[in-house]
Design brief:
Pfam families: DAP_epimerase. One of its GO terms (biological process) is lysine biosynthetic process via diaminopimelate. There is one protein chain. This protein has two domains: 8-131 and 275-288, Diaminopimelate Epimerase, Chain A, domain 1 (Roll), CATH 3.10.310; 140-271, Diaminopimelate Epimerase, Chain A, domain 1. The chain contains four helices and 19 strands. It has helices spanning 35-42, 65-70, 92-105, 227-240; strands at 8-16, 19-25, 52-58, 76-82, 114-118, 121-127, 132-135, 140-149, 152-160, 164-169, 185-187, 196-202, 210-217, 221-223, 248-253, 256-262, 268-272, 275-283, 297-299. The chain has a 17-stranded mixed beta sheet that branches. It has a two-stranded parallel sheet with strand order 11-19. β15 and β16 (256-262) form a beta hairpin. The longest helix is centred in the N-terminal third of the chain and has 14 residues, at 92-105. The N and C termini lie far apart (59 Å). The structure holds the ligand N[C@@H](CCC[C@H](N)C(=O)O)C(=O)O. Residues 19, 52, 82, 88, 91-94, 163, 196, 217-220, 223, 226-229 line the site of the ligand N[C@@H](CCC[C@H](N)C(=O)O)C(=O)O.
Length: 301
């Protein structure tokens, strides 16, 4: 009798401000990971546990259109999946963790800017003394919307960072909101593909340019940080503050602190930490055994 052995694959586990990821090194594009396998890897009881999975593949070894478009400009592609197995365009914390992985495990010179291809185009990463900085591109402010969590409802700013966000400046202390955050209710017409919801309060006076946020991520539930979310918060709050370009903001998240600048050129520079915590081999489950993520609830407008 032939017994088929389970498929084992190498992994690296890392986080940026406690937004954690399983990285699957796949330079030559040999790995096919199903949504069920991603969900099982991310499950915190039966898997490794993570907010998302990053398949690390060369742009010339995958036919993802974003990777194909980036060939010649970026060697590496961030194939990002949320904890429920869904794809996302971008992950601001994940791209720093991926950059650290490449600088320590691949032929990447950390003294040079590193272009990384994502489904939201190429992001350039630089390694500095106080953290890793990513040029996150230009945020688009797309007007007002509304989000609710439980009984509470707020006006929110619709911001696109390649992925969709709703940023609400709430009047209450963030620690008075339920933990974990229940799935927010949002307008389905505004966000046909779901939304990441950031709830924000100020730390100090508006002129301190310092805020705190909690986030409920599309496809992952409440997480300890969201890099694209922090950039969306910067765009919404700096606009409300009428802050001139070049002003820097500090965004506190449950898992740490991110530093942001909306530059004269219109792009957002985000600086924060990245940590690699473990590496080894993992068996990719044949079927999803994970709990489903509680998704935000879409309501027709
Ligand atoms: N945590 C990430 C964002 C991950 C993707 C997001 N959940 C989505 O579906 O758009 C970040 O640091 O930006």
């Amino acid at each position: 009798m032939i017994v088929e052995l389970p498929v084992e694959t190498p992994f690296v586990k890392g986080h940026g401000t406690e937004n954690d990821f399983v990285l699957l090194p796949d330079a030559n594009g040999a790995l096919e990971v199903s949504p069920g396998q991603v969900a099982a890897l991310c499950d915190r009881r039966v898997g490794l546990g993570a907010d998302g999975v990053i398949r690390v593949v060369r742009t010339d070894a995958t036919d993802d259109p974003a990777a194909v478009a980036a060939r010649g400009e970026a060697i590496w592609f961030m194939d990002y999946r949320n904890a429920d197995g869904s794809l996302s365009e971008m992950c601001g914390n994940g791209v720093r963790v991926l950059a650290l992985y490449l600088a320590t495990h691949a032929d990447v010179d950390a003294r040079e800017p590193l272009p990384i291809a994502t489904r939201d185009g190429i992001k350039t990463v630089t390694f500095g003394e106080v953290g890793i900085t990513v040029d996150m591109g230009t945020p688009s402010l797309l007007g007002e919307t509304r989000v609710s969590v439980g009984e509470q409802s707020w006006t929110a700013t619709h911001v696109d960072l390649g992925n969709p966000h709703a940023v609400a400046l709430v009047e209450v202390g963030l620690d008075t909101l339920p933990t974990p955050l229940p799935a927010p209710v949002y307008d389905e017409a505004t966000y046909p593909h779901g939304v990441n919801v950031e709830l924000v309060s100020r730390v100090g006076a508006p002129e301190d340019h310092h805020v705190a946020m909690r986030v409920h991520e599309r496809g992952s539930g409440e997480t300890r940080s969201c890099g694209t979310g922090a950039c969306a918060v910067l765009a919404a709050v700096a606009t409300a503050d009428e802050a001139p370009r070049g002003t820097t903001y500090v965004v506190d998240v449950p898992g740490g602190r991110l530093h942001l600048e909306w530059t004269e050129a219109g792009t957002v520079l985000m600086t924060g930490p990245a940590v690699l915590v473990a590496e080894g081999w993992v068996t990719l489950a044949e079927e999803a055994v994970a709990e489903p993520v509680e998704e935000p609830v879409a309501v027709p407008s």
